[in-house]
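Issue 218. Parser rejects a valid record. Input:
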Amino acid sequence: MTLRQHEQRQTVLRIAAGGTTSAHFELMNRKPTAVMVPANFTGTSLTITAAPYTLDPSRPDGCGPGPSAFTPALSAAGQAMTLQAGPGRAIALQPGASQGLPFIRFVADAAQLIDTDLILIHGA
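Output the parser choked on:
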C-alpha cells in the first residue's frame, strides 16, 4: 500500500488588540483544512467572511479585496459559516466550504485583549 503525502502550509492571520477582524487570506485554489485558535483568544465564535476580487491600484498586481467588500460567507443552506471557537482550540473546516471564494478572513464575536494570531492550515 502506498501512502500519498499531502503538503500542508500554515498562515498566520492576526486579529489586532481591541479588534475583532483578522487579516485576510487569498485562497488562490488553496484549500483551508483547519484553524488553530491560540490560548489568548477572547470569545466563543469565529465567522468566516469573504470578498471578491476588485480593482485596487495600490497593489502591484492591481487587484485585491475591496476594503468594505467582506460579507459573511454562507453555506449551501444559506447559513452563516460560524465556527464554535475558544481559547486553545483546533477547528477542522468543512472540505470544500470555501471553494470559489477569492479572499476570506475571520471575525471574532468579542474584541481581543491583545494581538491574537489565528493559524490557518491549508494545502499548498
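Fixed in the parser; the record now loads. Residues 8-123 form a domain with the Jelly Rolls fold (CATH 2.60.120).
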